[in-house]
Specification:
CATH class of the largest domain: Alpha Beta
Bound molecules: flavin-adenine dinucleotide, iron/sulfur cluster
Strand order of the largest sheet: 5-4-6-7-11-12-3-13
Strand content: 15-25%
CATH architecture of the largest domain: 3-Layer(aba) Sandwich
Number of helices: 15
CATH topology of the largest domain: Aspartate Aminotransferase, domain 2
Order of helices and strands: HEEHEHHEEHHEHEHEEEHEHEHEHHHH
Number of domains: 3
Distance between the termini: 52 Å
Largest sheet: 8 strands, mixed
Length: 385
């Protein structure tokens, strides 16, 4: 039976819950809003199936892998590109699957702007899947829906962060010719409870309910992306990634899920997906002709199936082949686990006491001793060169 002795041992994928034949695992949020399984021990028959599908227990390296191929790419249709987070490659890959009569699974907002996975089999529904939502998505019943579709011969694309793709593959337990998977490069997922409080505070400040959220608005350009919230009373909040407090909490690593600080799914070489997509940050310095600040994606192909799929989808794409380590340096936060902010524990202790996000901002400043040590380390590095 699933037993979690420390929070970093669960990424919240939900595979155990869906796999349990007795239906005796429920996902419940902790104080930070992250979901963890809770087992009804009376009902459990100790079959062990939940452990067999857990991607953390079974984190495995793929055996037969060629070096992945990497590209910088963007959709030529500028509406697709502007309404997507990076270069709009997800939409092109997804359209290819819809053209084959398939179903595309991805992430949509709930009414309260938390997020969950759904399946879309029409172009209109695909619009809802577009764009990065920087909170953890609930996979809900989607793994079992995918299995039913695959068994019936339907083509399926499942998209998500890489721990979700690993979980889906373990849940399915075998390869399917009609399954296509794409994962997004992943910095980590911020606390859903923090996002809830942040949005409620904004709604209070603007005296209106939010009706639209975009974590990756390109109003100030792709590189200076911004969080945009539109309210029912017509008012609009928009701040770029350096100014918006929620984005600062996220990118300073103070509010990520514990498993994201010890992520076993960031290794690019041994990915479970067919294709990985992300932002081609730094493209302006090594391929300036691929950058006009509207968004350029990095596309990493892991399988022959992925290669064929990308070639078909790439008909309406501007694309250039490149070295993986150049377009996505091994030091990037999406290729290695980030370190928790030294104030993370204090931050969440005060969060649990009900402090507002404005009050919590003070924890972003690194403690004095930490700053002194970091300075000393930098000086030592300089002298040892
Ligand atoms: C939590 C998170 C962290 C990320 N961190 C990085 C990073 O550090 N570096 C980097 O280069 N790129 C990162 N990305 C990926 C990047 O933001 C874009 O999603 C990606 O480049 C695809 O862009 P696109 O223009 O092709 O398509 P888009 O239309 O922008 O992408 C939509 C895709 O993202 C998926 N998606 C959206 N929200 C979520 C979610 N909450 N959980 C799972 N899947 C989701 C959708 O299902 C769909 O597949 C992250 C994305 C997420 C969701
Ligand atoms: S051991 Fe079997 S019955 Fe018990 S929680 Fe796990 S899957 Fe369910
Ligand atoms: S990582 Fe997924 S499968 Fe493992 S315990 Fe957590 S929710 Fe269950
Ligand atoms: S950082 Fe790793 S564990 Fe966290 S959501 Fe991303 S892939 Fe999953």
């Amino acid at each position: 039976m699933i037993q979690i002795s420390k929070p970093s041992e669960c990424c919240g994928c939900g595979a155990c819950t869906i796999k349990c034949p007795k239906n005796c695992i429920q996902l419940k949020p902790d104080k930070q809003g992250f979901l963890y399984p809770s087992v009804d021990q009376e009902m459990c028959v100790n079959c062990g199936l939940c452990e067999k599908v857990c991607p953390i227990i079974n984190s495995r390296e793929l055996q037969t892998k060629d070096a992945p191929r990497a590209y910088a790419a963007y959709a030529q249709n500028s509406d697709v590109r502007i309404s997507s987070s990076s270069g709009g490659i997800f939409t092109l890959l997804a359209r290819e699957i819809l053209d084959q009569g398939g179903c595309v699974f991805g992430v949509v907002y709930d009414e309260d702007f938390s997020v969950h996975h759904i399946g879309a089999d029409r172009l209109e529904a695909l619009e809802l899947l577009k764009g990065s939502k920087y909170i953890q998505s609930r996979t809900e019943e989607t793994f079992s829906q995918v299995k039913k579709m695959l068994d019936s011969g339907k083509t399926v694309l499942y998209s998500g962060v890489s721990c979700q793709i690993s979980a889906l593959k373990l849940y399915l337990g075998k390869d399917y010719y009609n399954l296509y998977t794409v994962d997004v490069l992943c910095h980590g997922v911020p606390s859903p409870a923090l996002w809830k409080r942040y949005l409620e505070e904004k709604e209070k400040e603007y005296s209106s309910k939010a009706k639209f959220v975009n974590f990756r608005s390109k109003d100030f350009g792709w590189k200076k992306f911004s969080l945009k919230i539109e309210f029912e009373n017509g008012k609009v909040y928009i701040r770029d990634l350096d100014e918006d407090l929620f984005m600062r909490f996220f990118l300073k690593n103070i509010c990520l899920r514990p498993s994201c600080y010890d992520c076993q799914f960031k290794n690019i070489i041994n990915r479970q997906s067919d294709i990985t997509i992300g932002d081609a940050w730094g493209i302006d310095s090594h391929m300036p002709d691929m950058d006009d600040d509207k968004g350029t994606s990095v596309v990493i192909i892991h399988s022959n199936k992925g290669d064929k799929w990308f070639r078909q989808a790439a008909k309406e794409t501007t694309i250039k082949s490149c070295e993986l380590d150049t377009i996505l340096p091994p030091t990037a936060d999406s290729r290695k686990s980030v370190k928790p902010h030294p104030n993370r524990k204090k931050f969440f202790r005060h969060f649990a006491q009900g402090e507002s996000t404005q009050q919590l901002e003070r924890f972003l400043r690194f403690p004095l001793m930490f700053r002194i040590k970091r300075k000393a380390k930098n000086i030592m590095k300089k002298f040892s060169r």
